[in-house]
Amino acid sequence: MNEHFDIVIVGGGPAGLTAAIYARRAGKSVLVLEKEAFGGQIASSPRVDNFPGCYGVSGAELAERLFSQAEALGARVELEEVLSIRTGAPHSVTTDYGAYTASALVLATGMKHRTLGLPGEETLGGVSYCAVCDGAFFTGKDVAVAGGGNTALQDALFLSDLCRHVTVVHRRDAFRGDPILAEALAKRANVTLRMNTVITALRGETALTGLALRDTATGAESELAVDGLFQAVGQQPQTALAAALGLTGADGFLPAGEDCRTAAPGVFVAGDCRAKAVRQLTTACADGAVAALAACAWCEGR
Q: Helices H, strands E: what count in the chain?
């Protein structure tokens, strides 16, 4: 017989671990399933300054604290990849190691940032996907922003207040973001816009020192010395499991209100995979708390 839990949480990032903490404090049996490493994307951040009460902590340490707290409260945590989910009463979860049932599910599978597909993106210091999280580390330095949507333009504006110089690299001849943002950028004296340009290589041994660029209109190649690269070329929600259940929207994210309830009874969503405007560490944890309490209420028939 498959082992049964009140709540199974798929995903061991901040949202999933917070959900585990709240569900255990409510007295529910909890299983957290994570396929890679606990802590999610924040675990790779060298320093976290925007999480209340934890100024200057590394992402790895913060992830360890969340993990240890969930485990100390009695949550069972397993490194297993969820292969399939069947909703019902109870829900069924099949992993690469076994199978479980649950009265309620919390999907906290997060997302991954799209990359440029270049060697060094995952290993070089100075490559970031979050200007708000890491911008302060580049105060007074030269950085580049890759992308042409609202996120890229907003990141560039934010960084221009901190950095000595910001170069925006965009592969097209016009930005996809709001014109008002592009106009604001054009007025910044310390911002250079490199249109019709792609990044072809990252320079540096252990830390980023520069970029190799190619003009898509002329084919001309050039080098740009920078200390940091902020990539804003899109996001990929990790929602294949939810998509198989018909729960995702056209953009791949899971539609759910502030109550974190999905269209499937007894299935809740938390964190970056939820369709919402702001995706930060604090909002992921907030989702985890809300989803857990909603799942507890579901288990109790409320």
A: 7, 17
